[in-house]
């Protein structure tokens, strides 16, 4: 598991700007969606993965725990699957041709294509029938042409999103930043995201926290969900 290091100066800056350390602790569980980004064999299973992130396996228990809490308190879980198709080679040609070596490109295409073992969710994840699966074709699930996640969330009345998955500083942060700029209240889970190393993980969380949204660990997030759901019931 990553060692989380958020400097006090960062926390102080957040408080000075927003008035509190955790601005979204008051989330409405019934309007909250858990977004699980790319926890697929292609990033998590040695021998299958085209881009192995070893720490991603370690966050699976936390993701399952958060998913259970979200379901219990009236929210919904969305499993995001990074997906390649032939159209990506032309519409995202600079990434495939300029930023990826040919041998790595071929391995990625094989791993992330529908029907391939690498495209499947990690087997230790607890997926329930009421959850939804979203296929995304870019790092961010929200950018135009990537997926229909935004439309699904809006149609079901969600205004708050919890971001978990891998890797923290690429697909997770890209999705989180775009989610905020589309006016979703956005939370990244400090021990529910995984990157290649602690340095990249913490840098991503810090950059997001300073400007784009809130960060919480699993314990705090689950406590907020359960407390706020209980408060809502008591007020009815």
Structure description:
- With 236 residues, the protein is an alpha/beta fold.
- The protein has one domain (8-235): Isochorismatase-like (Rossmann fold), CATH 3.40.50.
- The chain is 43% helix and 16% strand.
- It is built from 10 helices and 6 strands.
- The protein has helices at 8-18, 41-44, 60-72, 88-91, 93-98, 102-112, 149-155, 168-181, 198-211, 218-235, and strands at residues 32-37, 76-82, 132-136, 160-166, 185-194, 214-216.
- The chain has a 6-stranded parallel beta sheet with strand order 3-2-1-4-5-6, sandwiched between helices.
- Helix 8 (168-181) links the parallel strand 4 (160-166) and strand 5 (185-194).
- Helix 1 (8-18) runs parallel beside helix 9, helix 3 runs parallel beside helix 10 and helix 8 (168-181) runs parallel beside helix 9.
- The longest helix has 18 residues, at 218-235.
- It is globular.
- The N and C termini lie far apart (40 Å).
- The mean pLDDT is 92.
Give a quick summary of the entry.
The chain has 236 residues and is α/β, with parallel strands linked by helices. The protein contains ten helices and six strands.
């Amino acid at each position: 598991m990553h060692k989380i290091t958020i400097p006090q100066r960062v926390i102080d800056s957040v408080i000075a700007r927003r008035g509190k350390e955790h601005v979204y602790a008051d989330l409405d569980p019934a309007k909250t969606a858990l977004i699980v980004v790319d926890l697929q064999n292609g990033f998590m299973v040695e021998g299958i993965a085209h881009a192995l992130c070893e720490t991603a396996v370690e966050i699976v228990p936390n993701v399952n725990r958060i998913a259970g809490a979200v379901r219990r308190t009236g929210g919904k879980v969305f499993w995001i699957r990074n997906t390649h198709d032939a159209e990506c080679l032309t519409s995202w040609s600079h990434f495939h041709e300029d930023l990826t070596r040919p041998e790595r490109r071929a391995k990625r295409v094989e791993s992330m294509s529908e029907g391939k073992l690498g495209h499947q969710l990690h087997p230790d994840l607890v997926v329930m029938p009421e959850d939804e699966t979203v296929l995304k074709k870019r790092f961010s699930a929200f950018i135009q042409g990537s997926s229909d996640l935004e439309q699904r969330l809006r149609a079901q009345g969600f205004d708050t999103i919890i971001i978990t998955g891998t890797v923290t500083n690429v697909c997770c942060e890209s999705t989180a930043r775009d989610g905020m700029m589309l006016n979703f209240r956005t939370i990244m889970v400090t021990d529910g995201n995984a990157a290649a190393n602690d340095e990249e993980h913490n840098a991503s969380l810090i950059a997001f926290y300073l400007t784009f949204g809130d960060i919480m660990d699993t314990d705090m997030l689950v406590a907020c969900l359960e407390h706020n759901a209980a408060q809502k019931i008591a007020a009815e």
